[in-house]
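Cross-check.
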Amino acid sequence: MNAEPERHKRATVIDVARAAGVSRQTVTRAMNDMDGISAATRQRVLDVAKELRYRPSRFGRGLVVGHRPALGLVTEGLTNPYFPELADGVVEAATAAGWNVLVTDGSHDGGDPRRFLREVADQVDAVIGYFRIGPDAFDDVFGDLPVVVLEGTAEDGHRGVVEIDFAPGLDAGIEHLLETGRRRIVMIDSRSAAAPSRRTAAFRAAMERHGLDPLVVFEGDSGGDAAGAVARALREAPDVDAFMTFNDLHAFAVLKAVQHAGLEVPDRCAVLGIDGLAMGVVSSPELSSLDLDIAAVGRIAVELAIGMQTGALPSSGPEVHRVVRHTLLLRESA
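Predicted model, tokenized:
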């Protein structure tokens, strides 16, 4: 079977009908599990649809009539203030383009991310966010739906990608800490030693570029044990004079734990987060961070998703790969 549509063009019901050797009406019946066709014909149509990554239009199925197209945003936990800031940028950009936004929380997928994501995909015309599945599952879960992965990499084989390059921000942060007399810098990762984050890999590389020993302490699979992580760091390196953290949310907890351990911030020990959340100004002292333009991340992702949906951009490849970098945001904690 060789019925692959053009790379810039989404498969249509006509493409499926032609490849399966049936009428458009038969494709509609098969895709909507309607009567009037044999089980063998239905399966042949479904197989062809899967091969072509065909996904019936929500409009064609009558699920939405006369409404604006919808964009799905999948987050990893709306209690993390990063995601409301991201959602705000996504909604602003999508609304300006005439799209509605469905915001979902993937941390409540019930242990079945494929089913959760299929349910999201059935309600939208494109989807962006953080997905707990690998790119090898995208065809099965999303079909030909435009997909933009946040914090992915081109090497992952994803479709659209907004990659976060941590290296420049980490270099700037470490250089600042060195310039202010810090010599024993420790990274606290919210993940486990068995599965460290990409941020830890970037931290280790940046420290090695500066000729420093990259000590990393892990909070565990679920994070949330900042006090224990700080205590372990102080046991391993009593002379620690700066902490970098997985993100700002963890930095707030580390900041509190460091102060409870009797270390004055920033005089005795600096604390530097990652993300540059607006709420960093309400901590005491105010949190210094590697600042990410979160609204720009949302805006870029929306532009990619809409471009892929309209056919202005391909469904994968370098044309739908963007890179965003951090800048150093100095407040009071470093």
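The first strand starts at residue 70 and ends at 75. Residues 70-165+295-325 form a domain with the Rossmann fold fold (CATH 3.40.50.2300). Passed to J.P. for a second look.
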